[in-house]
Each structure stands twice: as structure tokens, then as C-alpha cells.
Design goal:
Blueprint: H1 4-7, H2 27-43, E1 47-48, E2 54-56, H3 57-65, H4 69-73, E3 76-79, E4 85-88, H5 93-102, E5 112-121, E6 133-142, H6 147-164, E7 169-175, H7 182-195, H8 202-207, H9 214-217, H10 221-229, H11 239-254, E8 259-261, E9 273-281, H12 288-291, E10 292-298, H13 302-305, E11 313-319, H14 320-329, E12 344-348, H15 351-366, E13 371-373, H16 380-390, E14 394-398, H17 400-405, E15 407-412, E16 418-422, H18 426-433
Parallel strand pairs: 1-5, 7-8, 12-13, 12-14
Antiparallel strand pairs: 2-4, 3-4, 5-6, 6-11, 7-9, 9-10, 10-11, 14-15, 15-16
Helix pairs in contact: 2-6, 6-11
The structure holds histidyl-adenosine monophosphate (HAM).
Histidyl-adenosine monophosphate (HAM) is lined by residues 91-93, 122, 124, 129-131, 134, 136, 138, 140, 292-297, 315-317, 319, 321-322.
Amino acid sequence: MGTYEEQSMSSSIEKAKGVKDILPPDEPYWELVEEAAKKTARDFDFFRISTPIFEKTDLFLRGVGKRTDLVAKEMYSFKTKGDDALTLRPEGTAPVMRAYIENGMKSLAQPVKLFYIEPFFRHERPQHLRQRQFYQVGFETLGFGSSVIDAELIQAATHILRRIGLEGFEFQVNTLGDASCRPSYMKKLQEYLKDNKKSLCLDCQESMVRRPFNVFECQEEKCARIARMAPKMIDELCEPCHSHFRELLEMLDEIEVPYTLNPFIVRGLDYYTRTVFEIWLSVEGEPSGMRALGGGGRYDGLAAELGGGEIPGSGFALGVERLIRVIKNQGLVPPQHKEREKSIFLAQLGFAARKRSLKLFSELMREGIHASAAFSRESLSSQLRIADKLGVEYALILGEKELFDKSIILRNMKTGNQEILEMRNLIAELKNRLSPFSTKLFRPI
Ligand code: HAM
């Protein structure tokens, strides 16, 4: 069997633009990421949540913000036959907050800690590492405003990345203040940009009043020059925001997380307050937007925007496709799933034996002996060829005669020696031969 690429054929129907099939050779990579996320969730007491793939459009208009690029340009929105305005979710934080409010999670012990591994949809210009359907691993902590939560989330993200085995990542950390200190700062920034309007690119000139933060993310050198000299939020914080941020940095120092203070991290979504961060890989030459493996921050005002009152929140999301690309680039080899390693092949000859083999296959599994089989093949030689390719130690062969005698043939695949076992002793015999320390014996299902 060749690779998928070698065998690809042109087909009359192709997938839509900006999406990808996730094919079997990538399965171990997805498992590696999912396992690292799930294990970390268990260690840090996060529980899994899954919200619907589509939501009322209003959730994102109010939650993420009408003027953000995400909402203004990138949403897959549609009207249903019943005239409901719906949107394929472009991100997970607003839906999780909606679910928290709607399901009365405020009455649970706070904070409520939730995680998700889900697909999201953004109508972006398709390019390398920007897909229109992509997956995120997200962690959200709702109902608690303290800086220790932000530190704990950054610690959890670090655990996921270290568990995967990634190296060279760094948190870029900033604060965006809150409703008491940000508005006056924004005015100051707008004034500054107005004074320097002529030196900005057309895009930044255009968004100067609506979204003055854009200048911090602009890739144009002339805008970067203006951005470097611009007033920064960190210098204009009110006292509570200042101590919140100072405490966070002290905790990050304590837990030895690799981080850099970066006043240019402003994030593209409106719900952020105070702490914001992105996770970058220290790879030279890639624009920062593409370097981001993930991002997150605090969103203390989001619940009020959704009509849910005062519910502080904080979280992060990692892009799974981007993680997998880095895993491959760093040459990390994900372990094959243990259950895929088989030491026994079950071969059959004739319809009655095939029927019995199907049952035997499950019986073996119940005893923790996972076999391979090729029920679709009829000839013994083709089945044994497959067994050979799989590299199993033994093949069990069941034919009409053995069925009649209540026996089965055990073939040593290395030596070719064959012996006849009584069916009733089969499990005990196999367990005897497979060392109890062998990874080929599994917990019974
Ligand atoms: P975000 O920065 O928009 O944040 O997305 C998080 C990560 O998802 C990005 O860093 C990137 O790795 C991945 N990602 C985003 N868009 C794409 C795309 N088009 N193709 C491939 N990967 C992509 C959020 O979504 C926030 N909800 C994160 C958060 C959680 N904040 C608080 N809690």
C-alpha cells in the first residue's frame, strides 16, 4: 500500500476551500494532542463541555464584538427556514459562557473549570495554517476573578505543551486594563494616532477610531514604528488592574513559565479585560500571527454583555493543526496507540469457521487478548501473508475440521511450527505464552 498522496485521484467533487481531511496517518498526532489535553484536564480538575456547532448570531455580535474582524468579516452566518439568524461558531469562549449562564452553573462550587476539543469555523482568506474549519483545545475557568486563575491556566497550557514534548514555546503576556482605566487610555491612543495619521498605512488610518489597537498588530514597518512610540496600556493601569497584573507576573516567575512582557499583544476579540497572552514558538522569520500556537486571557465583562450579570472568566485555546505542524517540525514521533499492537492473528477457513471466529475475536478481547483478523479474506495463504506483514508472533487457524474437533491450530509465525490446542484451553495457553509484562496483553474490556 502506498501513501495517500501516491494514490490520490482527481475527483469530480472536491472539498470546499480552506478545509482539510484528517487522514489515518495523522491519527497518532491527534491522539497525542488530545491525550495531553485530557490528562492535563484531569490533573487540573477541568471537566469536558461540548456546545453546539452553531449558535444564535447575536451571541457573537454581543460577546465577541460587532467591530472585530472575526465578527465583521469571518463568520459563517445564515438564516434558517424559520428565519432564525444562526452562525457556525468561530470561537468557543462566548458559547461556553452562554452555556454556563443558561445551565445555572453559577449555583455550583466556583470556579467552574471546563475544557473542550472542538472544531471552529472562520471565513478567513485560506493560507498556510489558516483554515476555515480548524480545531481548538480550550480551557475556561468561570466565576473567579483572581490573578491566580490566570497563572493556573498558563500553567495548565504549559503542562499540555510539555506533555506533548514541544520545545521553544514562550508566553507573550500583556494586560488590557478594565472598564475603569481602559476608556481614558483608548482616548489617549486615538489622539496619538490622529497626530501621526499621515505616517500610518491606509488600513490603520481607517481603523484608527474604530479599533485603534489594530496598529499594534499591523505588519507594515511604518506602522510598527508608530506603534513602538505609542502610549501603552501597561503605563495607564488603575491600581486594581496594576496589582492584578503584578501578582500574575510574580506567580509566573515562581512557577518558572517562559514568558515575555509584550505590550503589543492586544488580541482580536472585544471581550478581553486585564490579562491577555499568546503562546508563540521562538522560530525566526515567521510573522507573529502565524507563530501563535494559542491565545487567551481574562474576560470579566463578557457575561454582562450576554445579560448574565457579573461573572468573571479566564481561559485559553490552542490551535490543534498548528500544534501538529510543530510536533512534526520538531521531529517528535507520537507513540502508536497500544491497542494497535497485536501479537495474534486470527485466521479462518470456510463459512462456519468464519462465523465462530467472529465470536472468538470478542471472546479473546474480553480476556485482554487483542487479535487482528481479516474476515474479508477467504484464502488461508492471503490471511497468513497479512499476519506476516503485521509481524504478529502467533496465528490461530480455525477450519471446518478444527471446528468439528473443538480445537484450533496455533502457528508460530517465526518458525512456522504448528500445534493443535484444545479450544477449551485456548485462553489459558495464550496467556501462558504471552508474558504478563508484554505490552501485548491489555486490560480486559
Ligand atoms: P484565537 O486567538 O482566535 O482565540 O484562537 C486561538 C488559536 O486557535 C490560535 O492561536 C490558533 O492557533 C488557532 N486558530 C485560530 N484561527 C485559526 C485558523 N483559521 N486556522 C487554524 N488555526 C486557527 C480564541 O479563539 C479565544 N476563544 C481563546 C480564548 C479562550 N480566550 C479565552 N478563552
